[in-house]
Amino acid sequence: MRALMGAAARAARRVRWFCRELFGDAKYDRYVAHLRIAHPDAPVPDARTFWREHYAEQDRNPGARCC
């Protein structure tokens, strides 16, 4: 029973990771980690500001998006 619960927990963590990567939820976390390492003196924007700037940049440079 314990092994089954451990396997279910691992599967749930993997599904959560996959969904966060698929939908882009992890981008902000990676950005904050990058800022803290590469630019330790720079202020860290909140998530709302990050996403606002991220989508504005995508609108300025659409690249190879389908829509």
Describe the protein's topology.
Blueprint: H1 2-23, H2 26-38, H3 47-60
Concise overview:
The chain is mostly helical.
Verbal overview:
The chain has three helices and no strands. It has 67 residues and is mainly α. It has one domain. The radius of gyration is 17 Å and the shape is flat.
Q: How many structural domains are formed by the residues?
A: 1
Main sheet makeup: none
Order of helices and strands: HHH
Specify the overall morphology: flat
Mean pLDDT across residues = 90
As an assembly, this protein is: single chain
Pfam families: Sel_put
Features:
single chain; 67 residues; mainly alpha; 3 helices; 0% strand; flat; Sel_put
